[in-house]
Structures are given as structure tokens and as C-alpha cells.
Amino acid sequence: MTLLGCLLTATPLLVGCAESVDGPSLVLTVVTPDEPEDPSGPAVQYFINEVHRLSSGTIRIDPVWDLTPEGVEDWDQVVGESVADGTYDLGLVPSRAWDVLGVNSLRALNTPFLISSDAAMRAVLRSDLRDELMADLPAAGVVGLDLWPGDMRRLFGYEEPLLRPADLADQKIRSPTSRTVTAYLEAMGAHVVQTERSPLNQRGLESGFDGAGTVILATGNAVMFPKVESLVANGDLRSRLQPAQWQILLDAASATRREQLQSFPDDEEWARDFCARGGEIVAASPADLAAFKGVGQQIRGDLEQDPETARLIDEVEAVVAAVPEPESLSGCPVDESGSAAPADDDTKALDGIYVTRVTRQDMAEAGATDPDVIRESTGRITWTLENGSWHHVVEADHYLSDSEQEGLYTYEDRSVTFFWGPDEVITGKVEIGEDGSLRFRDLRDNIPELQEPTEAFFGQPWRKIGDLSD
After folding, report:
1. Around Cβ 239, how many Cβ atoms within 10 Å?
2. How far is CA 161 from the centre of its chain?
């Protein structure tokens, strides 16, 4: 008989025992609120494969994906409790969730602006602090196996960015349930909700680039904390396993952490993908960023009332202090190729796919007053320009007319003319940025009553997100 296959004849976890093992002798479940295609999916699958490899196929891990679909609130806590009560053997739960379930040691990871860069997060996860950070997990009925990297968390606004603490006052902000994170957002006056994303009844959300969606603006230089994933086991699982089996789980979890630290996309990669999908990144001013950090210091002070939490915060800070501070994101990353500006001597020079955003405030500042025209001219607009033909798609919940329109344009010697329907003609000058973006000026609409809406509609920068071959 093999060590892994037959030493646990009394455990209900064993599904078979024989001299020749044709299949797994131990089957465990790992549960997650995410789906396989979510950022944590590859880590879960790597762990499953590593357990299979290290155990020579005698231990199988069956994943349970998407335990808490859209509409379920407190989804992280539901997953954690399902592991604690023995419904599942293992679970992947973000560190932010455990403070609601009585765990204090992980709160250092979500202390606002303590870990505010991808490099700092990775340094902490490579350090010897992991066991200390997971030390309180038994208070919630689970045991920590390891900590894996996740994405950095920022504020995202719908129609307008969240650039200063006052922008959150009396506003609904979507954020997963966490005492620490909620305390920070509420300190700025926000009403924290866990309902589905909706620009109709929410001002914005706290999220990473991957989960934020696209019709949205990120405050790029205000990184509040990282999302760190904790792999946990039911509190009684270790006593039901042989030491060699438990060690395989630990070794597989550790191997997954090391692999994820190498392969998990860094912050700039997530930002590039976000921008390629049409998202926009803006920056808080130095004064506003300092204000965000000032509120964070208040929350840190509250956390440090607990001596053990204060000690862990200090130890994390010591690790972070040794990491060079990277340049913050104040806009979408420039393409590595340098994004040379196209030639500007013919219509084809403008060929490409662009995204722009027009808000009600833009319309008001341009002097537009007609509510129907404002409604029909605001939202996120994706433009396709191809050799004299234009096509645009407007995305906005309030849009009433055809969301797609098309027509013709000409471009010569930095002058552009858009032919809008049978009667309207819009002219102007266009500047092509080094990254391919377009800016229009000296706009003129041949229909005088539409001059102000036209200035707002074409007055916002068009960011190039792709070539026609993409």
C-alpha cells in the first residue's frame, strides 16, 4: 500500500484504497467566488495541477467556481464561511474579507496607502511575513495555506472621475464587503454598497482594472491597497490528513505563489488592457492625492489601536520602504513601440479606432442648454475612421436615438470636415498626438443653433485604442 493511498482508512475523504492505485485516493474541493477566466482562475488551476503532480495523482482537487454569482452580497464572506463550516475543504478568499469574520492580522494588507504599488505587494508576499499575516485565520474556523498576488485597487467613476475625497461624499460607491475598506470609504462620506454595478444609482466603485468595466474613468495615481488572495483550508482538515498529504497542499500552495509572482500581470499590464477596452485613466492633483492619503492615515491610526495590528503594519512598512517607488499612472500607458504620429497629408492619416467621452458638464461649459440635445450628445463614443468614412457608437444608459451613426469626412493639411446627415457640415482643425490621439479645435457647425453642442461633442480628446487591422 502507498503512503498517500492507504494510511487513512478511517477518513471519509478517501474514495478507495488498493495496492495498485488507478485513481485518486483523496478528493478535496476548493471553492472560489470567481470564474475560471477571472484573474484568480489560472492560480487555482495551477494549484490543482501542482497537487496532482506532487501526489503522483493520488490527491485530486475539484474546483467549485462562481459560488456567489451576481446579486449575492458579502460574496467573499460566503465563501470563507463555506470553508469554515466544512461545506468545502479549501477556498480562495481575498484578504480584505476576513476582518468581518474576526481576523485582524490580515488588515495590514488593506491599510490605505501602506502597499500602494505592485512591486511593494510582491515584496511583501516574498517576505517572511506571510505566516504572521495569516496567524489569526483560525479565529474564523480556517487555516491559512498561503497568500497569492492580485491586482491593485483604485477608485473608478462613471460619468466623472473620483479625483478628491469630496467627490465621494453622499455618493453610492460599490465595494466588496470589508470593515477596513468600508471604513476608509465611509470616512470620505461614501455610502458603500455591494449591489451590481450601475451608473444609474452609483457614483463609482472601488476595484481593480480588470473588474471595473469599460465605460468608466480610473484615478490612476491613487492606489489604495492591493487585492491579495488567501488560500485557506477548513480548520479540521489537517487533522484528517496524513502529514505527507498536508505537506503536499502546503508545497503546492507555495509553488503557486512563486509561479504567480512571476506570471500574474503587473499593474501596467492591467492598465494597458483596461485602456485597450476603452477605459480611461486620469490623475488626482498632488493636493487631492495628499487628501486621500490623509484620510488613509486616520484609518491607519484606528487600526493601530490594536497592538498586534500596529506591529504588523510597521513590519509591512519596513518591507515596502526597501522597494523603489515606481512612477504612478497618470494616464493610459504609452505603447512600447513609441506610437509614432501618423502622416497628416491625406485622409488615410486618421484611419483608426478612437474612444472619447462627453459629459453633461462638458455640454454646460460649452453653453449647450437644450436637454434633448445634451442627452443625445453625451456618453462614451467609439469612433472608427477609415479612408474618408466615419462610424460611431454611443454608450450611455440615457441615450434615446440610434446609438450607431455613420457618414463621410475629408482631411487635408490638418483641416477636417465631417458630413453629418444631408444638411449638417462640421469643420475644424485637428492635431495628431505622438500616441495617435486626436484633438479638434476651431470647430464650426453650419447650423448655428448646434454650434455649442458641436464644440462639446468634438471638443474632447479622442484616444486611439487600435488600428483597423487590430
Report:
1. 9
2. 15
Q: Which of 51, 145, 49 is nearest to 91 (CA)?
A: 145
Grid cell digits, residue 279? 477605459
18 and 146, same structural domain? yes
CA–CA dist 101, 146 (Å, integer): 18
The total of structural domains in the chain comes to: 3
3-state helix, strand, coil in the chain (%, to 5): 35, 25, 40
Instruction: Give yes or no: residues 126 and 159 share one domain.
Output: no
Compute the mean pLDDT over every residue in the chain, rounded to the nearest whole number: 87
pTM of the model: 0.72
Residues 276 and 384 in one domain: no
Q: Minimum mean pLDDT among 142-151, 192-201, 246-255: which range?
A: 192-201
**Least trusted range by pLDDT, from 7-21, 152-166, 179-193:** 7-21
- pLDDT of res. 422: 66
429 and 453 housed in the same domain: yes
The answer to whether residue 422 is domain-embedded is yes
Q: Three-state DSSP class for 183?
A: helix
Q: Which residue has the cell 440610434?
A: 402
Here the cell at position 416 is 477636417
Give the three-state DSSP class for 397.
coil
